[in-house]
Amino acid sequence: MKTQKSIMIAIAICLFVGMSAFSQEENSNTKKRERPTPEKMFERLDKNSDGKIVKEEVEDRKRMSKGFDKMDANADGGITLEEFKTFFEKMRKNRPQRTEGERPKRDWGNNEGMNGGDQESEE
């Protein structure tokens, strides 16, 4: 009787653990990836952490390099967090609305984009 009770408890524990693992896996697969905030993106781009992004810090990022002068509102050679956030907000407002599951179109060819419309769009 005691052995039977131990086996039942062991089976219950295995089922519980298995269901928990399955539930966590399902949640991680269906969870939407959150977009980084402008502050987090700025932090990653400001490689020397001096509070400004300079061209040398983004020369390996083609779109950032092309759009650098548009983001550098006061043309001092560096993009501050405020300039970055202002540009980011402008881009967000000009982005077309899309439905659930629709992939964004990467067209930077308009005058509000990073390359000012004088370049071909990049895919």
UniProtKB/TrEMBL annotation:
InterPro entries hit by this protein: EF-hand-dom_pair (IPR011992), EF_hand_dom (IPR002048)
Keywords: Signal
UniProt signal peptide: 1-23
UniProt KW Signal keyword: yes
Region of interest called Disordered, as start-end residue ranges on this chain: 23-63, 89-123
Gene3D superfamilies on file: EF-hand
Superkingdom of the source species: Bacteria
Example GO molecular function: calcium ion binding
The keyword Signal is annotated on this UniProt entry: yes
Biased composition (Basic and acidic residues): 28-63, 89-109
Coiled coil stretches, renumbered: none
Cross-referenced Pfam families: EF-hand_5
UniProt domain EF-hand: residue ranges: 59-94
Name the UniProt record assigns to this protein: EF hand
